[in-house]
């Protein structure tokens, strides 16, 4: 079995995967690595599928954000407890706001923190775990009524950094893939600490462990190599140096 000397996780997405015309979206998108972002949900949309929430009102019956991926256990952010709370009593720090122009749009600002800081995870974990959430009233299960919530929702996460993600080992000085996320062509550059391993190759693997592509003898090429990934489906892939 070949040893894996370095690993990066790369997001591949179609240019129209998520945009401001969709019923559920990030703004800005791609998601900033170091800046705040808002999540918008149109509660009248099929994507939300939330007929029980149509009487939402910011003054008397506001909505709340409830999330479990990429991490359910989360650290304090900006001095705030940002855990979900209880199903019948959501955390007040996760209250959503109604858009001032479109009353059907509600948004959550991640307490004005970057997405990764909010969840307490790095970029690799966020892309691997995905983003899952729902929208609910403060009491999600009032006595004698249906649950006051949306369906479970999710979005593919892509970030705005252009410089790729690197991991290192005793053999590998650097492994870079960029841009990340990528649409069509990714450039991969490698540098070794030990020249005896110059026959290493790149293997692209799906999250479920299937080898999708294999590029041989990629180490030490001055400007790296370009790999066309336009035929791959949108998703998250692992690049292994083996």
TrEMBL record:
InterPro entries associated with the record: Secre_tail
- Secretion system C-terminal sorting domain residues are 178-241
Q: Which domain of life is it from?
A: Bacteria
Does the keyword field hold Signal? yes
What does the UniProt keyword field contain?
Answer: Signal
Q: Which residues form the signal peptide?
A: 1-20
Name listed for the protein in its UniProt record: T9SS type A sorting domain-containing protein
């Amino acid at each position: 079995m070949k040893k894996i000397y370095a690993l990066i996780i790369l997001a591949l997405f179609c240019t129209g995967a998520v945009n401001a015309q969709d019923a559920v979206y990030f703004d800005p998108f791609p998601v900033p690595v170091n800046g705040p972002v808002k999540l918008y949900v149109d509660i009248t949309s099929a994507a939300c599928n939330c007929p029980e929430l149509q009487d939402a009102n910011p003054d008397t019956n506001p909505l709340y954000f409830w999330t479990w991926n990429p991490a359910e256990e989360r650290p304090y952010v900006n001095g705030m407890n940002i855990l979900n709370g209880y199903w019948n009593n959501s955390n007040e720090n996760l209250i959503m706001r109604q858009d001032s122009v479109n009353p059907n749009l509600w948004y959550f600002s991640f307490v004005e923190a970057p997405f990764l800081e909010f969840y307490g995870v790095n970029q690799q974990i966020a892309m691997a775990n995905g983003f899952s959430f729902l929208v609910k009233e403060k009491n999600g299960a009032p006595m004698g009524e249906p649950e006051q919530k949306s369906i479970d929702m999710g979005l593919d996460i892509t970030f705005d950094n252009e410089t790729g993600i690197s991991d290192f080992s005793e053999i590998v000085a650097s492994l870079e893939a960029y841009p990340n996320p990528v649409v069509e062509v990714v450039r991969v550059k490698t540098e070794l600490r030990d020249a005896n391993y110059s026959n290493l190759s790149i293997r692209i693997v799906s999250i479920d462990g299937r080898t999708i592509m294999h590029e041989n003898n990629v180490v030490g090429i001055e400007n790296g190599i370009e790999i066309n990934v336009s035929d791959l489906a949108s998703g998250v892939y692992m690049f292994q140096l083996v």
